[in-house]
């Protein structure tokens, strides 16, 4: 049992640890790409052709890029929401439900209140934020106060949100007509779109600004520092005088609020009303986006762009080949699986006989130095 | 007991165990006879468990021979040891609470029918027969989760017997038992010995050693310093063998000049342990400015709970604590504000975030100092951490290195640097400050604590290591079963005296119900 070889991976210098943050997602993408290619081949298509279609379908030409940006916007919000909570050690996987409730709130305030646009838009956004926060408050409170596992509560809150919003869209506030939706939001509550090629709107700007602001909060402020320490070691944070329950509650609520904003963007920017069951699972994709981003707000921009591009390319793929757009989902799931398995960097550098690592008594590392 | 080799079931010859270049066991020799109860005693960290883990195949030995019934054996896993008739009754039970007694006992060695089907009926009858044969009354169909601790231990014992163990290692079996259960366990041990089983009994409770064992081996700092027949020895002799040291480390320091101010004042503190027992019972103590008070005691006598109460990590069940004349706050943050600096024993879990960088670890607890509006002055925090690394001589440290990559001694220095660098800290609590720390670092840590005392701060050191207590304390308190049983001036006290208090030999509190003078009448 040599002490030197065991401590080697942890003593890597600063630069390599930065590099490793990027290596993890890149390896995950590479593995997903290879497995996806094998899958495409098994389905009788040419993988190079398929990947080219995905890239050109999402990135070639202004219209395609605009669709990609449109697809990316909700993922920016939900990805950021998940990243905020996970960095603080809280597994908020309820972004889907929080987004739905946020969307419902924005939809109601959007049609029921008549105000000038300068006030109406911020009010709707605030309503969505509050809605998301309120939905996150249940798992957050149970977790912080009673130690209830937030994963379980979030998972249960998601379908409840879907059914609750559905009840509003089909009964309570249903707009006249065959569609299950709320009345259209007033023009004063609409987010302006940039072009007629896609529904991409000022919500994108809001999302990008939020990512940058949170990156600054994380890296530069006392709160960001405290969140990180809580995420890595809550016991140590508490011992060190950080008000762990209060901070954890705040982070969870902030995360829920940001997820709610995804709903605001959908209602006020893309659809113009709350439509029942509008989400293809943006809240869940947000988990994948955040994982690929390694829970870094700037990383969320890149990974949301990638997932948005894959989603928009998948439409083209479906038109041009015999493949369905579910192939893209398979690719995305492989990325998540690889990241969840924590292979890549850690796996390569720690590749040793497992017994050597686990059998080492915790205090034997004390010996060699000093 | 004659030293004829054929009589020895187990013989360990010149065992050496090293972890890296730290030697945990030096040349240990021990023999266990058939039908013998052999006690292995020593302080925490003396190497008792390590030696037994070598025997049980949990740890590979570096040098030496293990002979089983005269033949050299080499176990690489516990399964090898079990197959050869060695069983271990662990201190922390390894049982599945949602399984029945019989299921737990056969787990991993299940009797089967054709096609690999589990023969539960046979498992139950065999379990029942086994428990009758050894007088360990148990219902094979009872759910283990519903059993008391003492009964669960019986399941552990039956588990080893079911696997035909002839040598049973009991790792501090009485630590979790009530006095009544302890008496029953001793009766069981005697019965097992009479039926030809050999028992190795790891403990640091001297009364129990005298009550039940045939021979006693004393371990100290990785060596077996003596093996004695029970009838030839007294508790005092064992205590001095356990604690006596050839080399004594003492920090050069002047006579303490305690100031008038009481920095830590505890009155009638009661605190509950993990199992709801009174881990700390109506305990009172005080520490004044300008003195180092050492709290000695065998681990598990309420020290952890006491310190957690002071640090604000555990809610006391009764009594009061005052830090610098003010009542204890509700959170660790409040207590820090009162002037408490706390160096916890659990470096990896409480005192440091091992994955975080060194500058981050040194900054937690000092955040208000680096707050600029909502922003954190990272430049200032890093500059201070850099200065602390130099001042406290943290070897191998750079600001961005993970704290977990440092050696134990240097992790300890990071904690100490962070806690003691506070200008307003007037009460310092250092819990096991030299645990897992090499000698060079121990000296510098002790020197720092003495400097703090000379600067007029109150220092309270909790340690399981008597050498450390004697090295730095001005006053020594001994904790036993959640109460302070002695308050001695360090310069007048002897290690033997403190050792007797630690073993509960000089208190009116009876723990096993057995009298020291009449060990044979326990069962």
TrEMBL record, chain B:
Keyword Membrane recorded: yes
ABC transporter domain ranges (all copies): 10-246, 264-506
Signal peptide coordinates: none
A GO molecular function held by the record: ATP binding
Record protein name field: Simple sugar transport system ATP-binding protein
Mode of membrane association: Peripheral membrane protein
Keyword annotations of the record: ATP-binding, Cell membrane, Membrane, Nucleotide-binding, Repeat, Sugar transport, Translocase, Transport
Family affiliation: Belongs to the ABC transporter superfamily.
Stretches of the chain forming a coiled coil according to its record: none
Lineage: superkingdom: Bacteria
GO (cellular component) term, any one: plasma membrane
Localization of this protein: Cell membrane
InterPro entries, A to Z: AAA+_ATPase (IPR003593), ABC_carbohydrate_import_ATPase (IPR050107), ABC_transporter-like_ATP-bd (IPR003439), ABC_transporter-like_CS (IPR017871), P-loop_NTPase (IPR027417)
One Pfam family in the UniProt entry: ABC_tran
């Amino acid at each position: 049992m040599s002490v030197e070889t065991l401590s080697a991976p942890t003593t890597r210098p600063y630069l390599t640890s930065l590099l490793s943050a990027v290596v993890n997602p890149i390896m995950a993408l590479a593995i997903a790409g290879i497995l996806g290619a094998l899958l495409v081949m098994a389905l009788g298509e040419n993988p190079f052709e398929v990947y080219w279609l995905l890239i050109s379908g999402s990135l070639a030409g202004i219209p395609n890029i605009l669709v990609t940006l449109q697809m990316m916007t909700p993922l920016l919000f939900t990805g950021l929401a998940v990243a905020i909570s996970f960095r603080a050690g809280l597994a908020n996987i309820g972004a889907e439900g929080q987004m739905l409730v946020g969307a419902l709130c924005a939809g109601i305030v959007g049609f029921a209140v008549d105000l000038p646009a300068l006030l109406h838009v911020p009010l709707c956004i605030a309503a969505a934020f509050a809605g998301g926060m309120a939905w996150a408050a249940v798992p957050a409170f149970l977790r912080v106060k009673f130690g209830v596992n937030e994963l379980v509560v979030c998972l249960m809150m998601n379908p409840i949100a879907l059914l609750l919003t559905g009840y509003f869209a089909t009964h309570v506030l249903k707009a006249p007509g065959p569609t299950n939706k709320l009345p259209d939001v007033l023009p004063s509550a609409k987010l302006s779109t940039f072009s007629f090629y896609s529904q991409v709107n000022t919500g994108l700007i809001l999302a990008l600004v939020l990512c940058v602001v949170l990156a600054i909060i994380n890296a530069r402020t006392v709160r960001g520092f405290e969140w990180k320490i809580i995420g890595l070691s809550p016991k140590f944070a508490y011992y060190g005088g950080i008000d762990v329950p209060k901070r954890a509650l705040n982070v969870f609520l902030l995360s829920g609020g940001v997820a709610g904003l995804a709903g605001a963007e959908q209602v006020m920017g893309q659809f113009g009303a709350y439509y029942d069951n509008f989400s293809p699972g943006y809240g869940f994709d947000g988990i994948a986006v955040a994982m690929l981003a390694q829970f870094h707000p700037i990383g969320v921009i890149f990974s949301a762009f990638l997932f948005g591009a894959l989603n928009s390319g998948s439409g083209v793929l479906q038109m041009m080949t015999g493949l369905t757009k579910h192939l893209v989902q398979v690719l995305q799931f492989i990325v998540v699986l690889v990241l969840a398995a924590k292979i890549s960097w850690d796996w390569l550098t720690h590749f040793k006989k497992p017994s050597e690592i686990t059998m080492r008594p915790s205090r034997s590392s004390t010996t060699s130095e000093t | 007991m004659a030293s004829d080799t054929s009589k020895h079931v187990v013989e360990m010859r010149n065992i050496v165990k090293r972890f890296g270049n730290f030697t945990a066991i030096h040349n240990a020799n021990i023999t266990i006879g058939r039908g013998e109860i052999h006690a292995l005693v020593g302080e925490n960290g003396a190497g008792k468990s390590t030696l037994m883990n070598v025997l049980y195949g949990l740890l590979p030995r570096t040098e030496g021979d293990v002979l089983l019934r005269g033949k050299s054996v080499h176990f690489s896993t516990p399964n090898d040891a079990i197959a050869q008739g060695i069983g271990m009754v662990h201190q922390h039970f390894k049982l599945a609470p949602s399984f029945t007694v019989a299921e737990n006992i056969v787990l991993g060695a299940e009797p089967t029918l054709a096609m690999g089907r589990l023969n539960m009926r046979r498992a139950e009858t065999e379990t029942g027969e086994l428990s009758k044969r050894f007088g360990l009354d148990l219902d094979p169909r009872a759910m283990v989760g519903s059993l008391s601790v003492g009964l669960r231990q019986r399941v552990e014992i039956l588990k080893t017997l079911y696997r035909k163990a002839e040598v049973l290692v009991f790792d501090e079996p009485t630590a979790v038992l009530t006095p009544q259960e302890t008496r029953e366990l001793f009766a069981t041990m005697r019965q097992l010995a009479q039926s030809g089983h050999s028992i190795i009994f790891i403990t640091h409770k001297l009364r129990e050693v005298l009550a039940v064992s045939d021979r006693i081996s004393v371990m100290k700092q990785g060596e077996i310093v003596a093996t004695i027949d029970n009838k030839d020895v007294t508790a005092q002799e064992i205590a001095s063998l356990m604690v006596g040291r050839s080399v004594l480390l003492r920090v050069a320091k002047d006579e303490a000049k305690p100031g008038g101010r009481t920095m830590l004042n505890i009155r009638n503190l009661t605190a509950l342990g993990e199992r709801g027992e009174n881990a700390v019972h109506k305990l009172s103590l005080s520490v004044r400015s300008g003195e180092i008070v050492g709290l000695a005691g065998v681990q598990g006598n309420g020290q952890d709970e006491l310190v957690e109460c002071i640090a604000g990590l555990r809610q006391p069940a009764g009594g009061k604590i005052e830090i610098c004349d003010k009542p204890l706050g509700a959170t660790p943050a409040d207590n820090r504000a009162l002037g408490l600096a706390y160096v916890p024993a659990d470096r990896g879990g409480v005192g440091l975030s091992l994955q975080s960088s060194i500058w981050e670890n040194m900054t937690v607890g000092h955040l208000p100092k680096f707050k600029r509006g909502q922003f954190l002055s990272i430049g200032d925090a890093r500059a201070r951490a850099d200065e602390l690394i130099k001042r406290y001589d943290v070897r191998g440290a750079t600001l961005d290195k993970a704290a977990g990559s440092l050696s134990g001694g240097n992790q300890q220095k990071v904690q100490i640097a962070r806690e003691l660098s506070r200008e307003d800290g007037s009460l310092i609590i250092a819990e096991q400050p030299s645990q897992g720390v090499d000698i060079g670092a121990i000296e510098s840590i002790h020197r720092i604590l003495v400097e703090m005392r000379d600067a007029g701060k109150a220092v309270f050191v909790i340690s399981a290591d008597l050498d450390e207590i004697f090295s730095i304390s001005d006053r020594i308190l001994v904790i036993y079963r959640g109460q302070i049983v002695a308050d001695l001036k360090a310069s007048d006290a002897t290690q033997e005296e403190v050792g007797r208090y630690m073993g509960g030999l000089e208190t009116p509190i009876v723990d096993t119900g057995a009298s020291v003078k009449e060990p044979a009448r326990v069962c």
